[in-house]
Amino acid sequence: MIEEPQTRAEKIGRTADHAMPLELRGITIRYDGGGGEPLVIAEDFDLGLEAGTMHCLAGRSGSGKTSILTVAAGLTLPTSGEVLWQGDSLDEMTDDEIADRRRALIGYVDQGGALIDGMSALENVLLPAVPDQQVEAKTEMAKDLLDLVGLGRRMRHRPAQLSGGERQRVAIARALILGTKVLVVDEPTASLDREHANQIIGILKDTTTDGIAVLVASHDQELIKVADSRTMMN
Amino acid sequence: MNAASRFLRSRSLVITVAVLVAAMLLSVFTQDRAQSALGQAVDTNSRGLYDILVLPKGEGTEGQTLKQPDYISGTGGITQDQLEQIRSLDSIGVAAPISLVSKVVQDIEFPQLKATDYVGYNENIATYLEQQNITDAVPASEWPEPDSVLSEEPKNYRITAKAVTSDGVNETVLFETAAEGSLGQAKLEEFDVPGGTSLRTVAPEGETGIKFPDPAGGSAHGDFDVTIALPMLPQISETVVAVDPAAEQALLGEAGSFLEPLAEAPGAAGRGAMELGEEFSSQMTPGLFSGGTESADIDGHPFAFWSPFVMQYQAAMEAGTLTDESQVIPMVVRSGTALDLTYSVHIEEIDDAGNTVADVGTVSKALGEEYLPFASTKPFQLRWPGGEDYNKLLGSGGVQVVAGLHQPAQWSTDFVSTPEYVAGEANPDGSVGQTATPQGWVQVNKLPEKTQQWQLEPDQSQRAPVNEQSYRTSLEESGGAAAPLPFVYGTFDANAVRDAAGDVNYLPLGGYDPTPVTLTEDAEGNAVDPVEMKPGLSGAGLSVQSAGAITDYNGLAAVRGTSPDDAVIDAVRVKVDAAGSWADAAGRIDATAAAIKDLGLDVQIVAGSAREDVSIYVPEYRQDASGAVSDLGTVSQSWVRQGAASAVQTSLSQASSVLLMLTLGGAALLTAASTVAFTRARRAEAVTLRAMGWTRPKIRSWFLSELLIGAAALLAVAVIVNAFSRTMTTLLVSAVVMVIYLAAAFISTALLKPHPPADTGPQGATGVPLVDSPVKFAARQLSTNRFNTGAVAVGVGVLGAAAGTLVAVILDLPRAAGSTALGSLALSEVGGVNIALALLGVVTALVLTLITSRFDLARKREQWDILEAMGWGPGLLLALRRSEAGILALMGLPLAILGAVAASLAVAPHAVFRAVVAGVLAVILWFILMTRTRK
């Protein structure tokens, strides 16, 4: 299903180059309770994610896993604490700079894949290349990545024509298109059967062998088991 | 969950229907207010002083609705018997006849230059005060020492008299005449008389005096001044009109009170000129007229202006022009004159060789306010610079008696016709430019044919003749009675009469209300600061002033020697006895007009007319010294537009109705598009219901019942607005709104297919370009969601078309209002409301389009989140939103432009371009608002 490392390295176009590409320091996420008690999602949360490792945020639904992921991906700001990408604090970056760094560093895979309707799997994979106008340059790589996740023959299909597992794999391929160093993945197996869930777990585990750090949120025991480290969210 | 709950749950549907409901309420209320204001403005201002103008058979031009203010010319055509027949009709409130009686060419008495040369209190003055029984003079002990502007030894002076007239634009020097001589202080000289001595004021030894050419007299010393007779002013033409004073007062209301003395004048039997002249002359005993002359009268003839009457009587007796048949002509004369005529005197001290030694100064006086035709309350006097008028020491005895006019004034029936005009092409607002027709040059600036004192012919060569263009042809009528003797009964203010003739509902009174012309463009067509043109001396130019005097029909008969059977009435102004506005009285007015027409007269219904400022090109106006002729340019004059009220009400009502239709039609269309788009977005719900075993008809009725709640709300509002407005327009618009919304409801449920979207298979390997930019991303998304894209694009197009059309209608309002004053007034009353209605339409369309545009916002926000997670920065996401809105705007633009063009071609072809611009701007506004949407 997945090709050999020599080919893989070429397909994902990158090598590991930073010992700790993602670090969360003292992250507290608190939401206003609307007049009642404030809702504390995370408090003084620390995490250092090393290259080539997979860390799993485990816990039941609503435990704050996704909130930590969006903070780690720089999509939302924590109430307090600091997010560092390759040692650089996001606090010192503008929105545009964060977007640029995210594109170069973070691959984010939302729950359910979150593909864009009306666009083929290939186009979805190439979307991250649009801002740098590298769509044409990355097309072959996108095809290789779709091959890599087993969708080489479905690259012209649109999201509505793909199964949940296929959409999730397209999303992972999309997250890897720009030589991502950190893969942030939210509940990749939540709505999949075991067979398709295992395929996704395999893909994620394989990416770590390429030096990519994977931060995944899941309550899937199989996935929790294969992670190099894990945090239980309450 | 019942249909109402489901409808309320669908917030977007509720909002769109709520917007439509609000638009219906506001726009119907606004339009109703506009109609009400319009009706009030028209009703209040469209019935003037009279309703029907009756003219002699053949005088009332058929088919012309624009009437020039001049309609009487002295040629008559209506008999007294016909007037009585008109008055005998049931519906007649007032029937007021008017005729031009005569044209009078007159000279003002000799102007005088008064040089202060007061010899001090003396016995002659004391005797005068005693004989005249003057009690209000300054006591003898308080009289000042002698005073004079002249030296004891006579000095030589050159006095240059100059008269200049202006038509408002160009000045014409009528004459400039100099006279030289010496003047010095007068002396009191005692001389022997039988039984004693007497005092007299004599010129100093060696004084030559100053004498202008005949017919001017020389200089003479008195106790207070040296009086130097100056060259005469040029002859001035005045007209006299006749009215029935009682009927005219009834026509004018309070403004006609100036006619009261004329109404109380004795009948023809009490107007014998010889008897009255003799009686007044005999009453001129010392002291009789020293006071109370304003209230006293003799047999109904007021004493006001008795002095000119008696002096003219005496002059006529000397000339032998009066006969036993001669009658006095009671007249109310105009105060002042519109003639711009300035008389100036330049005084220089000179040596024996004629060289100027000192410039004494210049004094000047305009004919102006003190002038009264046929009389003068004061002599036309100028005073030597630096001098004081000591006549005031005499109290009432210092008032100088004046003859008023140089004798005799020439009464004639050499009338002039009304001007002839050639109409140009009609303008879009219905106004028609006119061109005046020149009728030939007439010569003015003549001296009288005879001198006053010696009955000699003056030397006419001392003045250069001046040519004035005539725009009125001569209509000389034969006839003439015994020489009339004018008798001034009172005065009237021409401007007050003009005000009484109405402003918006102006109807010319016929000869005694001024109809000024104002220059607006020069001969080259360049706009100039408006200048009111002054009348010329001939009385035949384009600009004429109010008649100089008004008399009654006995006066007319006396002047023209006509009998009661003669058709001397030029026109009759009829006020119909019907209360209310022009529209209320229209039926009765029409019936009255028909009855008058049956008497063999022409009738023009002027109820519902309005003033219209007409542009008139005036060619061949002026002749310079070399004889070169030049045009004047374009002047503006108030004419009367018949049927203006009906036209204004109809056209502005239509404009207002069109605005309402556009506002609510556009809103209903957008609500319909919104409804269809929104219902379509609920396909997933239909699929679920289908999966639950619901039949297709059941699913349709499920959604339809929801939409019918919105229709019910609209129906309720339609009932309310129709109960409020009660007009066919509101009923029609409400029906259109209901039909559009119901059609949208049925169409949207019909389009709601309860099946999952068909799998169309993979994209072709070729032919579909990869998405590599925000623009392509936006295009792909819009093509993927074609239905929504189409709905929004149509919405944007309708917005642009609506904005363009509304702007076209607003721009067309001035044309729709027409060129009359009533149209301008009505427009000022309803223009703001109509603009508010148009703005409401545009805002409603914009809001509904924005709502429709936001139906897909949730899905778009998800996409933006995905793209952000993939590293698309804020700038790129903004570019994406702009691309999407830009494509939609471009898609909607053709519809906006075509819609604006088509609609404005239908309602306002001249505003097509601006309508298109407005449509495009509306689309741009939508684009800006859309791209300002926060993520």
UniProtKB/TrEMBL annotation, chain A:
Transmembrane portions of the chain: none
Q: Which Pfam families match?
A: ABC_tran
Which residues belong to any copy of the ABC transporter domain? Answer: 22-234
What keywords appear on the UniProt entry? Answer: ATP-binding, Nucleotide-binding
Q: Which InterPro entries does the record match to this protein? A: AAA+_ATPase, ABC_transporter-like_ATP-bd, ABC_transporter-like_CS, ABC_transpr_LolD-like, P-loop_NTPase
**Keyword ATP-binding listed:** yes
Q: Name one GO cellular component term.
A: plasma membrane
Q: Does the keyword ATP-binding apply?
A: yes
Gene3D superfamilies in the record: P-loop containing nucleotide triphosphate hydrolases (3.40.50.300)
The GO molecular function terms of this record are: ATP binding; ATP hydrolysis activity; transmembrane transporter activity
Instruction: List the protein's name.
Output: ATPase component of ABC-type transport system
Source organism per UniProt? Arthrobacter crystallopoietes BAB-32
Automatic annotation (TrEMBL), chain B:
Disordered: where is this region?
A: 454-477
Give start-end ranges for the coiled-coil region(s).
Answer: none
Regions crossing the membrane: 658-681, 702-725, 731-752, 790-811, 831-851, 885-905, 911-929
Write the protein's name: Permease
Keywords in UniProt for this one?
A: Membrane, Transmembrane, Transmembrane helix
Q: Where is the composition biased (Polar residues)?
A: 454-473
